[in-house]
Amino acid sequence: MAVPRRTSRDIRSESRLDVIHAVLSAGETTRNEVARSTGLSPATVATVMGELMAEGIVAETRLTVGRVGRPTATLAMNASRGRVVGIDVAETYVRAIMFDAALNQVGSLEEPRDEHEVAPIVVVEGIGRVVDALLATTGTARADVLGVGVALPGVVQGASGPSVVVPHWGWHRVELDRLRDRVGLPLVVDNPLRAIATAELWFGRGRECSSLVTINLGTGVGAGIVLEGRILRGATNSAGEWGHSLLVLDGRECRCGRRGCVEAYVGAPGIQETLREIAPDHPLVDVDTQPDFIAALAAAAGRADAPSGGDKAVQETIARTAYYLGSAIADLVAVVNPEVVTLTGWTTWLLGEHLLPATRAHLVDQAPGRSAADMALEVSTVRGNSVAAGLATIALERFLADAGLLTTQLPTAL
Amino acid sequence: MAVPRRTSRDIRSESRLDVIHAVLSAGETTRNEVARSTGLSPATVATVMGELMAEGIVAETRLTVGRVGRPTATLAMNASRGRVVGIDVAETYVRAIMFDAALNQVGSLEEPRDEHEVAPIVVVEGIGRVVDALLATTGTARADVLGVGVALPGVVQGASGPSVVVPHWGWHRVELDRLRDRVGLPLVVDNPLRAIATAELWFGRGRECSSLVTINLGTGVGAGIVLEGRILRGATNSAGEWGHSLLVLDGRECRCGRRGCVEAYVGAPGIQETLREIAPDHPLVDVDTQPDFIAALAAAAGRADAPSGGDKAVQETIARTAYYLGSAIADLVAVVNPEVVTLTGWTTWLLGEHLLPATRAHLVDQAPGRSAADMALEVSTVRGNSVAAGLATIALERFLADAGLLTTQLPTAL
């Protein structure tokens, strides 16, 4: 029987993760509060807190003496335990965010990237440079860094760790070794979709519900899937590639090589293509940078209630994009049937408020039966770069796993 | 924290399920063999066997005395513990299959059904009649029936049990009460997709791998999804409705009301529609009954290597269907990324060998990266009606749960 079975070790690990989540959510809390919010027994909470305090992850911040009984200890994540870094290697930039061990943001740094430059040596050096600069600007000693997490598109996880890493960059295991050497710190790599799922699980709706999908809208699009409180990785670590599922068989060419993918319609370049189809001579068709285009589209849409009636081509572009997006999310709901779907990524931040109402209407209309009627579709409450935040969290999880505190599904350290 | 956590009770339950699976797979086995095949400790296996024997689920069939040591007991499922019935209420028939408690088929019975007749009272009476007839023909006393499982399309599971049952039939909780009264035996209802997933998990590839998708091809199409050895139900018990995800935005009308669904292309009526598009005057376009049409298509395709070169329109229909099916399975692989995909259902039995090679090629071509390259796509080894077999198994699981032996996700008994 190759079917995996949970062991009591996994359960201890899950209890620890629940306690960490509870402490993180609360900011400051007590053992009793954690027992209440997690449903764990007070004895289990006491044991787990002891382990986490021994490792310096959680610390007592003060003792409150009441009229009767023993004093109550207030507990919090121990921010000074060290720092973690999450890095989003996107098409057009590399963004690195540093967090303390309580996952408060300490600093961040972005470098532009030439999207046509995918030679491993250049990308590796770019990542290394950003890490060095972030350590310098935040005055962080290397010894204080618990881990660095790097999001790379298309990490394929094998039994012995990641192998093919970025197929369309020609990256393999050897380039990972180079990256580890250049960064010179405990390193994990994972897929951006696993990153956004982790961010949603730790900081967003994952705190309240056990099955959710979080959708990243940017140049590329994809879905992070959480089922029963666990991230769906898939047999080859490539679950969630909803951006490359079909919207239209034999439709628009997608940069992945397939035709008709969701991404070719609701990725930023796809949205620009929709505008081009509607109004080939519209000035926004020629905006070069994708975020500039999406921002300009949102600004033009914002004038919809102007006396002139606004820019019809822009309104039609947004209406069609909402139709595409609602239809494609309905497919995801048909297959996975989550409790909630959240939207994240820079297209969401810029254009989300204009897209959301019509997207929701199309979704409810098209999802099977009434499966989307009571389902929440909302902008993620995890703000900022959730890929970087997610990868920093994965690096922290990896650190906790190496300390023997977690055993849940984690990318193999390099 | 609403994220569910496994308890030690769940783990005991999973160990019991693993032991049952191991005994079922082996036919006859020993405690040592079960420990080896499940990876459970001999002590755990001994404890679990004791519980299963106390409940009469497993029995010792003989004792083998070796030269040294204690005699070895041979164990098997206790077929005489009772019987379970699984019922597939399909568009055009009601099929009931009876199994003994070792899940050997004891008898089966099919009644035709008028697909336009969905009045609850008629459907309920039809199901009741089939159960009565099956009990009579197999000489089974009502007291010997451990449970009856009925597959109904679209069961919506709420916290307090199933509510809306068959939306497009107008069935609600009250019709379920009527069904329970008419059948007069311990009853569970579930969705056909959960049934085929259960059948694959107990009798097919689920014995060897932990994440799989099994696709039902018939009048309707859908996917049963197993992740980490557990069936994906979804927030409203409607996961796996891949048949109603998009193949072509704004494409063919689907009977669900949406346009362009996968089912409208690879369900049996969809395949006939493809032939109609290719050759409107082809004689097979007018074949009335769907299984007759698919059987005739397979027979005509079988003559492909005849000297005449065979029926070009039929070959083109099969080639397009394989393209549709491979593309749609690629979407499922993109999102879920399973280890294996199996095909089941009567269209598969009739046409699978003609469809599979080209479907596999399209799938590998279109799934993201290399995610389908090493993935198995195969006809399910679970033969016969896997909806009925799956529901009978769910009824047995329900019986075991009521006996306190299982706690895994189960449909609520009525």
Features:
Arc Repressor Mutant, subunit A, Nucleotidyltransferase, domain 5, five-stranded mixed β-sheet, alpha/beta, homodimer, 19% strand, 414 residues, globular, 12 helices
CATH architecture designation of the largest domain in chain A: 2-Layer Sandwich
Overall, the morphology of chain A is: globular
Number of domains of chain A: 3
Task: Give the count of helical stretches of chain A.
Answer: 12
Q: Assess the beta-strand content of chain A as a share of residues.
A: 15-25%
- Rg of chain A computed from alpha carbons, rounded to a whole number of angstroms: 22 Å
Describe the 3D structure.
Two copies of one chain form a homodimer. Chain A has helices at 8-26, 31-38, 42-54, 120-138, 173-183, 192-203, 263-266, 268-278, 290-301, 312-336, 346-366, 386-402; strands at residues 28-29, 58-64, 72-77, 83-89, 93-100, 105-112, 145-151, 157-158, 161-162, 187-190, 212-217, 221-227, 230-231, 340-344, 376-379. Chain A is of the alpha/beta class. Chain A folds into three domains: 8-77, Winged helix-like DNA-binding domain superfamily/Winged helix DNA-binding domain (Arc Repressor Mutant, subunit A, Orthogonal Bundle), CATH 1.10.10.10; 82-195 and 387-402, Nucleotidyltransferase, domain 5 (2-Layer Sandwich); 205-379, ATPase, nucleotide binding domain (Nucleotidyltransferase, domain 5). In chain A, the strands form four sheets. In chain A, strands 6-5-4-7-10 form a five-stranded mixed β-sheet, with helices on both faces. In chain A, strands 13-12-11-14-15 form a five-stranded mixed β-sheet. In chain A, a hairpin with a 3-residue loop joins strand 4 (83-89) and strand 5.
